[in-house]
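Quick board copy: two proteins, each given as sequence then tokens.
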Amino acid sequence: MHNQVHVMLDIETLGTGSNAAIVSIGACLFTLQDGPDESNTFYQRIDLRSCLDAGMDVDARTVLWWLEGSPGALVELTGKEDRAEVRAALMAFKHWVPKDALVYSNGPSFDAKTLSTAMENLGVKPIEFWRERDHRTALDFLSVRCEKSPQEGRRFLKGELGPKPHHALADAVRQAMELHSLFKSKDVGLRES
């Protein structure tokens, strides 16, 4: 498990439901032992019009949240360069994911669920449900193994890594680094005892 290659997934959307319009997909390969492999990543901005044409939802509250966010996040959200049609982006991501990799995302009911819903609706075979893993639950377990409460583990990581930028690829890399940092923290503790 320590050296197994995993995928960390993050998406940015314009809604909070499982049919939300996806504006970017970011992912990186990682192992618990070595952390994220920043030389092997996936990042694709998605054309919003293609999401709307596919019947995906845009939520006004989420749009307002983005508008109130950082200028960098807003530019990332609205920039017109390098945007792919949603179905093409989903197919490219599915092709990029290694066949046997487990796919982690931040919570069991949003990123992976939203991506699977989009894939199903657009005729792209989703990643098998049994390969999906929850980043938050893994963080909580690793925090407890490090003799920290889940809240202490999150505070430790925030101090170590800083705030999340709300950029799909940067968030995926950071989330992989969080698992790696806690894993190594416990690993170091085991070697010292």
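And the next:
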Amino acid sequence: MSSKQTYFLIFANMNEELKDTKDFLQKISDQVHFWIKAEMPDGAILVCQIIAKLSLLLTILLVLDFLFKFSFNALFLIFRKYTQKPILKAFYESKISNSVAHFFAIGVTQEMIYSVFYRHPKSHSILETFFSLMFVVAFSILYFRLLKATEKYYVLKGDFYRITGIRAVTQSLKILGYIIFSFIGISVLFHIKASTILGSLGAMTAVILLVFRDTILGFVTGIHVSTSKNLKVGDWIGIPKYNIEGTIEDINLLTTKIQNFDKTVSTIPTYDLLSTEIKNLQIMSETNTRRIKKAIIFNIKSFKFIDDEMMVNLSNINLIKDYLEEKKAKISEAKKGIPNSSEIINGPQLTNIGTFRVYALNYLKNNENIEQESPLMVRQLEITAQGLPLEIYCFTNDSKWENYEQIQADIFDHLLVAAQKFDLEVMQVSLKV
């Protein structure tokens, strides 16, 4: 027997089984039809027949839907047992199989309309419209679940930069889907051509663009964020415009949600990620380093040259002992032959502020909590009305907030007290309100 003959026999058997099923449904429909006709009063016969047959049809739909869902989900579980691909997990968790089951259940039930309602031909067009509308709803659910599965797939892959762009695309497609499926639903329900509906919207283009302005901007921003890889969900960012600093919780089409460090939540328009200055501080967490940039202001009147007595006292400080010995030798050599060399101002000399600056630098270089491979300096800033700021610029090797604050506090606690050893006066600036 040839393959064509085999296929012909299979289809012939299927047609026979389908015909038997239709005959069986017609018999049940007739039994319901004539039982109601015999038992019900004349005025209620037609209504009761329609309700009973419609209940029968919906029962068949629910039973078929359950059977198809059970079968498809079982197949998915078998596939997942033998493979752990993210795409299968994303499809299963998004219930794609349930949506496919709805299609089969609605399609098979629609074929039974003529068998169950063959004695009520006027109801066929109404039922056809109803089931066509159900097809539109089922397809829209499948469409939205496919978009959800796409998002889940990239989340499962851990591609957090790309997921931002994917969400922008999927959310735009969701809005487009709502519009298109609404048009199709109206077209099916009222038997209006979709082209007629779309044509009537041509004059409303400007209004539509105005209404969806933020949506369009959010879509563009999402694509930009995805391709530039400047931001992702989970990043620690700062936005000076809004005085916000926290972790990105979610980036969607219209708004971006940020959890502040005080456990409050801020939301900003997503398009602000493109048009506003954003500081991405996540690199500090990833490298486990965080910058210290803070100044101590000294009274200029406390600055002086280091005399012999102070030199003796400071020479006992281990961090600058070698520095002082080296400088002392160079100064002695440089002062040879200089008239009035006994006068401290003549020739090179050390100052208490300059020596303290070297001490602070050596203190940082010997601090186990400071990252030595990153920029490290102690520098003078512009003199102000309050005094001379001496800035500490370095990076801690622990970016955790509480540890960072502890390290920073320990450094400045030490330097503020150590300054007294150099006869330096720290300014206490009072603000007049």
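Board note added afterward: DSSP finds 16 helices and eight strands in the chain.
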